[in-house]
Amino acid sequence: MQAGKNWFTEVYPHNGSALSLEITAKLHEEQTPFQRIEIYDTVWFGKLMVIDGCTMVSDRDNFLYHEMMTHPVLFTHPNPKTVWIIGGGDCGSLKEVLKHPGVESAVQIEIDERVTRLAETYFPDLCASNGDPRAQLLFIDGIQWVKDAPDNSVDVIIVDSTDPVGPAEGLFNQAFYQQCLRCLRPDGILVQQSESPLFHLPLLESMHRTMRGAGFAQTTTFFFPQFLYPSGWWSGTMAGKGSLEGFRDADARGKAFATRYYNEAVHRAAFAQPEFFKAILGA
Ligand code: AG3
């Protein structure tokens, strides 16, 4: 570290490593009923949101995560019309979902309204589509929402959560996956952020086992870079009530909206399975 400079650091105690970003100011800090939220201005990453000491979103690199949490699943489902986003309070996933003209309804179910209010102030780009008539923003517990929802009522569920500790812990267990499965229509797909393949392999292994144990027919993981998160290498995991093999490649190729990372070739490449990963899926 250079003397006289200010850094935000997230330490990864289980992985003997840390990530630092040079900051110019702390813009906001508050304790909500659910978590501690901090907002920083940084030298190169733009604004930064931190929850309970963990990096969540930066202006510079959030497009990688938000595009990959949305477009792969939406171009895998044959005809996604209704989408729920569990978590995702910064609205970055919502914005990407609404780029799909076929989506008729997108409901974001975020437990902590303060995440969204702060995103509106500090990450206006991510919230640019919040006024879309197809969008609905709810500030309630996503686990309860899924429990209360009718059978066969949604095409795609996107779980855009924090790490599987604290408020997000209950989004990584079999009871939650069973409720998601029940709410999904026959072609329905669940996609969940699934942490780092390098740092959190046991979690990934357990997610696949638990999703299949809940009754999902197929599961698969895809990979993408994310500088801001532990190890810089991140993943999403999909669970299909039916098949996950229906990539609508012509639609992805002909998409009428702009992306900065996602395209048809990136989609295919993201699903290439590394050798060590194949080994955990067989286990
Ligand atoms: N959700 C995944 C954040 C995980 C970061 N973990 C960490 N820094 N230890 C981000 C929400 C973006 N919508």
Task: Summarize the structure in words.
The chain is an alpha/beta fold. It has 2 domains: 6-58, Spermidine synthase, tetramerisation domain (Spermidine Synthase, Chain: A, domain 2, Roll); 62-281, Rossmann fold. Helix content is 27%, strand content 30%. The protein is built from 10 helices and 12 strands. It has helices at residues 62-68, 71-74, 92-97, 113-122, 142-148, 174-183, 201-213, 249-253, 264-270, 275-282, and strands at residues 7-12, 17-31, 36-42, 47-51, 54-58, 82-87, 105-109, 135-138, 154-160, 184-193, 218-225, 233-240. A 7-stranded mixed sheet has the order 8-7-6-9-10-12-11. The longest helix has 13 residues, at 201-213. It is globular and about 55 Å long. The N and C termini lie far apart (42 Å). The structure holds 1-{4-[(3-aminopropyl)amino]butyl}guanidine. 1-{4-[(3-aminopropyl)amino]butyl}guanidine is lined by residues 10, 54-57, 65, 88, 90, 92-93, 160, 162-163, 193, 229-230. The site of 1-{4-[(3-aminopropyl)amino]butyl}guanidine (AG3) has 16 residues, from strand 5 and helix 3.
